[in-house]
Amino acid sequence: MQSDERPVRKIIHVDMDAFYASVEQRDDPSLKGKPVAVGGQHRGVVAAASYEARQFGIRSAMPSVTAKRRCPELIFVKPRFDVYRGVSQQIRAIFADYTHLIEPLSLDEAYLDVTDDRLELGSARAIAEDIRRRIREETRLTASAGVSYCKFIAKLASDHRKPDGLTVITPERGAEFVASLPVSRFHGVGPVTARKMERLGINTGADLSAWSLPQLQAHFGSSADWYWRICRGLDEREVKPDRPYKSVSAERTFDEDLRDPARLAAEVDRIAGYAWARVERAEVRGRTVTLKVKFADFELITRSKSFAQPVPDQAAFAIAGQALLAALHPLPKGIRLLGMGLHNLTEVNSDMPAQLGLAI
């Protein structure tokens, strides 16, 4: 795992608890203790759900109509991304007191390499505890943290005792910890891959570790090496400050092949919502919209449209996707998968022209 010349890394993954929804409950006391969803009520998707809402099975990226059906008492709140970005900056300022090696994943989570104990607190656990204390005191919000020797396990650990939890996994316990978890929890194993693994009898990390690398390669191709390593607790990726995003996307595989234009248009709107929620979390904008289409016979094509200015909002993003889809009609065959992505990315900043925005 680590060479003898190099100290074992000490990595913390900090993940805010139901971040958007918690900010709304903090700022509006009448929402405390109630099921809250951040997002559009009539169209679009849930950007975040409070823990009270999650008890009804409501989660981020779920269509708002589905969420309302599951919980009629659900309270929808319009997103305030400027506020969330401001709180996120507060939190990152706290991180910076402990290390300069900070890799933000989104507004509400980040990796920190604290191998160098700048404040001489004595251990990575103590650093994580102090960070969580300061977040609570300075923002009135809670965060969960995972502490480990690698990024993969630190991220798993931060989710282990949510909300407001702290989990430490030492190198000696790494492989055992991963073995005990379902593969659906693994970062880098999406829902489609998790279902495929389960069909092959791979339900846990222990099941995955029983497969040889050639066996995994036969079923999972280029991803096999990653799966083989993580189930053994091996991950040598470094924490990279200001990690640049190359693209942000989302896709959906359908239970049946689709050809109906109205149905496909509705799916583009839905997938655009999923993808745009990730765009907002990543704090980026982009100038190129890409539509990914996989046909019933597994033929895969992509179509793209680039703009002079960054795509300003979800509505414009969805409209671009609809135009790319419309250009494919009449379809030669059914579609089994649609995806939408945003490329040529830049970070969100206050200098972006506000007049480009469209009402959603």
Automatic annotation (TrEMBL):
Annotated residues for binding of Mg(2+): D15, D108
Reaction equations catalysed: DNA(n) + a 2'-deoxyribonucleoside 5'-triphosphate = DNA(n+1) + diphosphate
GO molecular function per UniProt: DNA-directed DNA polymerase activity
Source taxon at top rank: Bacteria
A Pfam short name: IMS_HHH_1
PROSITE patterns: UMUC
Residues marked Substrate discrimination (site): Y20
Active site: E109
Residues covered by the UmuC domain: 11-190
Subcellular location, principal: cytoplasm
Presence of keyword ATP-binding: no
Keywords: Cytoplasm, DNA damage, DNA repair, DNA replication, DNA-binding, DNA-directed DNA polymerase, Magnesium, Metal-binding, Mutator protein, Nucleotidyltransferase, Transferase
The protein's required cofactors: Mg(2+)
Cofactor: binding details: Binds 2 magnesium ions per subunit.
Keyword Metal-binding (UniProt): yes
Enzyme Commission number(s) of this protein: 2.7.7.7
Location relative to the cell: Cytoplasm
Function: Poorly processive, error-prone DNA polymerase involved in untargeted mutagenesis. Copies undamaged DNA at stalled replication forks, which arise in vivo from mismatched or misaligned primer ends. These misaligned primers can be extended by PolIV. Exhibits no 3'-5' exonuclease (proofreading) activity. May be involved in translesional synthesis, in conjunction with the beta clamp from PolIII.
Family per record: Belongs to the DNA polymerase type-Y family.
Subunit organization: Monomer.
Protein name: DNA polymerase IV
Organism per entry: Sphingomonas hankyongi
